[in-house]
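Quick one: structure tokens for this chain, please?
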Amino acid sequence: MSHTSPAATAASRTRTRTLVVDADDESTFRPLNGVGGVPGPVKGYPQFPDMTPLWREAGVTVVRSFDWVSRLDTRDNPTSLFPDWSADVDDPTSYNFAATDQWVEAVHAIGAEVMFTVASSIPSNKLPAQDLEVYGQVVEHIVRHYSQGWAGGPAKPLRIYEFGDQPDFGPLHFAGRPDEFCAMYRAFCEAVRRVDASLTVGGPATAFPLEADAPYREGFLTFVRENDLPLDFFSFLWFTDGSRDPLDYRYVSRELRALLDRHGFTDTELTLSYWNYLAVPSSSAPAAEKGAFQAATAIYLQDTLIDHAFFFRADSGRDPHYGFVDPGGVGDVDGNPDERSRALVLAGRALTGRRLAVSGGDESGLACAASRDGDRVRVLVANYVAPDSALTEREEDRFTFRIPIGEQRIELGLTLPPQRSDLASAGVESVRIELRALPWAKREVNVAITSMTRATEGPRAVSVSEEGSLQLDIALAPQSVVLVELTG
């Protein structure tokens, strides 16, 4: 016969979970605090709010360049980096660097790096290059501008260049053939090599990374291998409109790592060019649900095979091209913060410094991470609860959706990871955080607790035991995030 203690019965009744943080067990965080978006008003887009204070507070380390202000069209376009394809490729006045320079300088001003994406502006042009030799020369001059200061380039050189942006996204991002895309990648790589062979290059930012035997997956890798081209990173996108599961990223990264290894790319890193909860314009969810997902996913990403990641979009979600507000934005259209903005900040603050071992979380949305940064210990806890629609048994692991482009309704579909039965929430409503081996034995520490609703508690003085342990009981409602900070 089994016996349940009164304490266990009480814990079950209150749905409390115990999380244990071992401050004596340290490791490193993966560098996954990248974002995509527009940092603020730039030439041609004065309506974008200034997001740089938020990005600075969130500790953003790298930003992926954005197509409205930093793309190379293959056809004449006055807003493109090379507006007129009949112009002299060697003449600095043939290039339109102003808006992109402003974008780059805004990113550098917060201390972040830039991953510069070479692709066409969407939706104005999706065609392949007409003359690969001229295309390569233009790419070379753009890289010289941003990496060597040619034609008044930025003082801080860019080191990371990505080629492509969702070439498999139906007719929306690339209107050429896969062989034309691959030929452009070769011209891109040769151009970058002529500037500096030590620069980091990769691609192709595939939108549907689980589609097997696909031209922009196996086909692209085969072309790169047969032509002895560099591929420092393989990039892909993933959003969870079809699953609402933050553990998708673990599955997708395992599949892609195995794919790369099979093709001989064992040293090629995995770059998640864009991630978020929702991306399809018709998808919706409360801001608190989105924020809880963001924080939980940021924690879970640390235990995937992904080497670099970019949250999209870390801006207001304004979309002047397609005429809607992107469901992946943070805050409102004027940049005023909401739960999504604060989740970005709390995760950014917590997932830095030295990583501390944590136990007691689960794979159903109760995620926890801890860190030591100087004289400060932080514990981030997210309680994401998947909606009922994500728990209904699927007929197949396939998600179909429509993208509105003006009067058009483009239908697309993608393969999903297998549905997980343990996505269902365990119903946790509070946590008991046990911190062990703290450096402040027999001393008082200040404890402050911040939530993504902006509610704060403390700082208040709490005594650490002579063994260096401390226990905190914290309410944790569904779709919530808390950051606990201890300072000696």
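The longest helix spans residues 178-195.
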